[in-house]
Amino acid sequence: MNDLKNSQAPVTTVTINRNEFDDKTDNIYEAISIVAKRAIQINSEIKKELLEKLEEFATYSDSLEEVFENKEQIEVSKFYEKLPKPHALAIEEWLEDKIYYRNTAKDEE
Question: Which of 4, 98, 101, 106 has a CA between 20 and 30 Å from the CA of residue 76?
Fold first, then answer.
């Protein structure tokens, strides 16, 4: 997920041309399903990466002073909050043909 910083995915809501979105599958529901599954994968990758980075700063004592001193942890969290959302990243990948998919029902025919 090193390409998160270089992603051109929008951070805000953007309208997408429906014809362009479902052009590859000729079925809007199938296209949405594929993108949704990819968004779930991206979300789990981002979450795993974030938890690994936050684990570096983990302290296992309950002192109030440490809460205010941990500015690095706050900066890491802010970085991930500013990233495009997983569904926006998945849509960007879909429109740029970076998602491999196949319909097994069509393959059987």
Answer: 98
> Closest Cα to residue 30, out of 108, 105, 109?
105
Q: For residue 12, report the phi and psi dihedrals to the nearest 5 degrees.
A: -110, 175
Q: Is 71 exposed, middle or buried (CB count within 10 Å of its CB: 0-12, 13-18, 19+)?
A: exposed
Listed in sequence order, the residues at least 6 apart from 95 whose beta carbon sits closer than 8 Å to its beta carbon are: 16, 20, 21
Q: 26-78 pLDDT, tens per residue?
A: 999 999 999 999 999 999 999 999 999 888 877 666 655 555 557 888 888 88
Question: Looking at per-residue confidence, does 68 or 8 come out higher?
Answer: 8
> How far does CA 5 lie from the centroid of its chain?
12
